[in-house]
Design a protein that fits this description.
With 289 residues, this protein is an alpha/beta fold. Helix content is 47%, strand content 15%. α5 links the parallel β5 and β6. It is globular and about 65 Å long.
């Protein structure tokens, strides 16, 4: 069933878990993520990042996302991840997205506030809700940049006092915080400061905190993040990697002269993504704690 960002985060808060938010740059990833959520009977967020327009256009994948969400047997939020301009956010809202993220984290504070306020106004008119970001994880959503995952001087950890001011000025419904994670593949082991999450939650009256750069974090650290107050965890890179590995394994399994078929390789990729997502969702829901 299709639900809003606010509704799905309320479920997470009530259960004291984090909802997995998985990117969908293609149909196969949607199928894998919905199947995983239904098998575990857990809520899920399927999201499309503006940076994934190199794979498929929002106008093409968005209606498919909404249809799958409506037909799912579990609560599903259809969310825009890392929307970089307000026109793109409006496009997602017009397609029926129930959550949008405006990412102005690289802008001066006042400009981030002004644009985020506009995003909230736009979302409310569409019956949707808004995630925003304060701080920097040192790399872009696609994992590019100079950061290493640990000793990255471009990271800017979220200031809890500023987070409270930002929340009050904008009216956001969730806040992506920087507390030591990095987008993309980790080059070294991440060292996370969970006190940032705890202090932001305390300062912001338990505003749902979002964790970006979730791939590569240990199970133990995920558990600590959820217990500190993280209620949404973005996860994509290792899911995508699992699909790639499955397709390579399929090709390597063929006998000499045997013809490979994309449709068969895609089925292997879907199954691999589903199992990877199930492991992530199990961890985020503390079912393996």
């Amino acid at each position: 069933m299709l639900v809003t960002l606010k509704q799905i985060l309320a479920i997470a808060e009530e259960r004291k878990i984090a909802v997995g938010a998985f990117n969908v740059p293609n149909l196969e990833s949607i199928q894998a993520e919905i199947a995983a959520a239904e098998e575990l009977n857990l809520p899920v967020i399927i999201q499309f990042a503006q940076g994934h327009e190199t794979h498929i256009r929002l106008e093409e994948i968005g209606p498919v996302m909404v249809t799958y969400a409506k037909n799912a047997r579990v609560p599903v939020c259809v969310h825009l991840d890392h929307g970089e301009d307000l026109a793109f956010l409006q496009k997602a809202l017009d397609l029926g997205f129930t959550g949008v993220m405006y990412d102005g984290s690289t802008l001066p504070y006042e400009e981030n506030v002004a644009n985020t306020k506009k995003a909230v106004e736009m979302a409310r008119k569409a019956g949707a809700y808004v995630e925003a970001e304060l701080g920097s994880m040192g790399r872009r959503e696609d994992g590019s940049g100079e950061g290493t995952g640990v000793n990255d001087e471009t990271k800017i950890y979220t200031d809890p006092v500023l987070a409270k001011k930002f929340m009050e000025e904008t009216g956001i419904d969730a806040l992506a915080c920087s507390f030591g994670t990095t987008h993309g593949l980790y080059l070294t082991e991440p060292k996370l400061d969970f006190s940032v999450v705890e202090k932001v939650r305390e300062a912001c009256d338990d505003l749902p905190v979002v964790m970006h750069g979730g791939s590569g974090v240990s199970v133990s650290d995920f558990h600590k993040a959820v217990r500190a107050g993280v209620r949404k965890i973005n996860y994509f890179t290792y899911m995508d990697k699992a699909a790639g590995n499955a397709m390579v394994a399929y090709l390597n399994s063929l006998e000499k002269g045997q013809v490979p078929f994309y449709s068969d390789a895609a089925l292997k990729a879907i199954e691999a993504m589903k199992e990877n997502v199930k492991r992530a969702m199990t961890t985020f829901a503390l079912l393996d704690a």
